[in-house]
Amino acid sequence: MRMMAVDTGYNTAKVCEFVKKFSQTQVIPVKGRDKLDMIFSAPKSVEITKAGRKIGTTKIFGVGVSIIKSELYGFLKQQLNPETGEMPTGYCLFPPRDPAYFRGITAEEIMQVTNKKGYQQYQWVKKYARNEPLDCRVYARTAAAVVGMDRWTDNRWDIELLNHAQPKEHVEKPKVTPQPKKKPNPFLD
Questions:
Q1: Is the CB of residue 41 less than 8 Å from the CB of residue 5?
Q2: Using an 8 Å Cβ cutoff, are 31 and 8 in contact?
Q3: Which one, of 37, 29, 36, lies nearest residue 10 by Cα?
Q4: N or C: which end of the chain has fewer CB within 10 A?
Q5: Burial class (CB within 10 angstroms; exposed 0-12, middle 13-18, buried 19+) of 43
Q6: Are strands 120-126 and 108-114 parallel, antiparallel or unpaired?
Q7: How confident is residue 177, by pLDDT bands cut at 50, 70 and 90?
């Protein structure tokens, strides 16, 4: 795993407490923003409160969820080249999964809705209750963009594959059972 993005939209204080256990090169706190016109924004300091009391601040990355969802849905529509079998850039290849996963990854659709001021706008609307696979894909895409995978060359991908594809030998450390400390016996000394 290169990086993980964790959504702060629910239970922000607990998420930020979890994220602080790691380096920002490993785990980042994120918050989806419908109107953000980029994959992610620079992190902004946000006050964290718990039970109405300020408990600190943390820097949270904004995520352009509409852009990422649009990109993903475009990738999901792609097909292999029927003559060569070649996969187009962004092609999504999935292992066997439960149908609920695919309902979840396609749980939302872009629709024209009327906002509170009476204007028409496009908005992502849930058509299925469970959209966690879609959210996970959006935040994984964010982490990939933060790491810079969009700009990696073929050579860099080869290096990454070599570094991460080979399983590391797992050497189990012997378990050490702590021995109870003996109290000195004044009669034996």
A1: no
A2: yes
A3: 29
A4: C
A5: middle
A6: antiparallel
A7: low
Q: What is the pTM of this model?
A: 0.79
How far is CA 52 from its chain centroid? 28
CB neighbours of 3 closer than 8 A, spacing ≥ 6? 25, 26, 27, 28, 143, 144, 146, 147
Question: Is residue 166 very low, low, confident or very high in pLDDT (cuts 50, 70, 90)?
Answer: low
- As a dihedral over the C-alpha atoms of residue 91, residue 9, residue 122, residue 124, rounded to 10 degrees, the angle is 50
Write down the pLDDT at residue 22.
92
pLDDT at 165 over 70: no
- Residues shown for the chain: 189
Per-residue confidence at 58, pLDDT binned at 50, 70, 90? confident
Q: How many CA atoms lie within 13 A of 100 on its CB side?
A: 3
What residues does 50 pair with on adjacent strands?
A: 53
In this structure, what are the phi and psi dihedrals at residue 73, rounded to the nearest 5 degrees?
Answer: -65, -35
Question: How do 53-64 and 27-33 pair as beta strands?
Answer: parallel
pLDDT at 171 exceeding the cut of 60: no
Q: Across-strand partners of 124?
A: 110
Q: Which residue has the higher pLDDT, 72 or 53?
A: 72
Query: Which pair of structure tokens corresponds to residue 32?
Result: 């989806």
What is the distance of C-alpha 120 from the center of its chain? Answer: 31
